[in-house]
Amino acid sequence: MCLLTSLRAAALGLVALALSACTPAPQGADIWDPWEERNRRAHAGNQQLDRLISGETGDRALPAPMRRGVANFAANAGAPADTLNSLLQGRLDMAVANAFRFVINTTFGLGGVFDIATGMGLDGRRTDFGETLHVWGAPEGAYLDLPVLGPSTERDAAGLLVDFLIDPLNALGPAERARRAVAARTLARGLARIGDRAEYSDFVDALITESSDSYVQSRLLYLQYRRFLLEGEARIDDFDPYEDLYAD
Amino acid sequence: MISTPMRIFMPTELLTRRRLLALAAGAAVLPALPAQAVTEGEARGLVDQVAAELTAIVNSGGSLGQMIGRFERVFDRFADMPVIARSVLGPAARQASAQQLARFTEVYRGYLARKYGRALFGGYSGGTVTVTGVRKSGTVWSVGSTARMQRRSGGSESLDVVWQVSERSPAPRFFNMIIDGVSLFAVEREEVPALLEARRGNLDRLIADLPGLG
């Protein structure tokens, strides 16, 4: 236990070091992608994986009626981490909401398979340590396309690692039970991704899979959507196409 | 001089030589400023109409093909398609003939409707779109709206959709929609030049291929 704690502390120190060495984006750059070559290799692998899980294979792996339950379970098992991150972000109301959701759905929703809390009007907010870093003022860093995990940024990737290390699910209940809960959540998250791929297939196919350069499109969609989630509103620039028109 | 009203509905006898000179000088300073800038109320009114039409489409219970057909008419009636088409082509638009541009605009509208119609209506069975507010940055009105949508698989979700209208547009028509932070315009300004490059810059080939894409 003591060894594990010091290992965690060492790893956290590494993350802090990595963050301080975050590739600085040039001023005004909307997309900062110095790792493009490496990213494209990972993206090519991810697209192959995508072809495996999309279409009928995905439907067979996770039939539509099961999707909701699996997604609920994965989300609920992430609620303790949502609670911790909400606290770290100073969002007390969201921390309370996420904690209550976890207790209610775990107790009355068959371990989280049913989302009773939303039915009661208790909405939570999914978050992660990447967002906590954003709230604390860490820069986004360079764009990353991670093997299997997909689009990310240097800040979000550091967040993933920290979330893994400080996961409060590990501290709930006896060690053996906590390990089983984490394993079940990992499995559910993987399945939920297959379910999401099927659920949003129209969107993903139209905008990414069938585009002429799926790497460029997924990078743009991820960065714009992630910034929207973190900033709480769409970024508006004052670009006016009529300016170009009249400049002719 | 800049404040010279640029309305051209004035009796010809008022168009003295001096006035004409003044107008010409004003026009040189501001080459093509529309007679009247699009107002906040006009931008909002446009998006109210678009929101009502989108709400009608998503609740129509029609097939995806029918919804896409109606969505194309939304682009036709409420979007400034010639400006969008020119702008997403980028530098290639400057080398294109007026006829090529017109043909491209026509097929590109269908491509947009198919691509975003599928992305927007594919997973939903109903919903409402309501205008939430207007803000201005530079010369652009950004009209915010919220789409509360029901998923076909049950459950619901909320999308944040911003419509952009330039006050320099000759008529109140939108040139961009931003869905949950994703700007259609930004996506298309990457995609269309890439489509063109895949055809060695041959615009006629792109015009021929677009009806099969999206």
Structure, explained:
The complex is a heterodimer of chains A (248) and B (214). Chain A is mainly alpha-helical. Chain A has a domain of 170 residues. Helices cover 67% and strands 3% of the residues of chain A. Chain A is built from 13 helices and two strands; from the N terminus they run ααααααααββααααα. Chain A has a two-stranded antiparallel sheet. In chain A, helix 1 runs antiparallel to helix 9, helix 4 packs across helix 10 and helix 5 packs antiparallel against helix 6. Chain A is globular and about 65 Å long. Chain A starts with a helix and ends with a helix. The mean pLDDT of chain A is 89. Chain B is α+β, with helices and mostly antiparallel strands and 214 residues long. Chain B has two domains: 33 residues, no CATH class; 173 residues, Tgt2/MlaC (Nuclear Transport Factor 2, Chain: A, Roll), CATH 3.10.450.710. Chain B has eight helices and five strands. Chain B has a five-stranded antiparallel beta sheet with strand order 1-2-3-4-5. In chain B, helix 3 crosses helix 6 and helix 4 crosses helix 7. Chain B is globular, with a radius of gyration of 20 Å. The termini of chain B are far apart. Classes of the chains: A mainly alpha (248), B alpha+beta (214).
Short note summarizing the structure:
The complex is a heterodimer of chains A (248) and B (214). Chain A is mainly alpha-helical. Chain A has helices at residues 2-20, 36-53, 56-61, 64-77, 79-88, 92-108, 116-119, 129-135, 154-165, 175-199, 201-209, 214-231, 241-247, and strands spanning 143-146, 150-153.
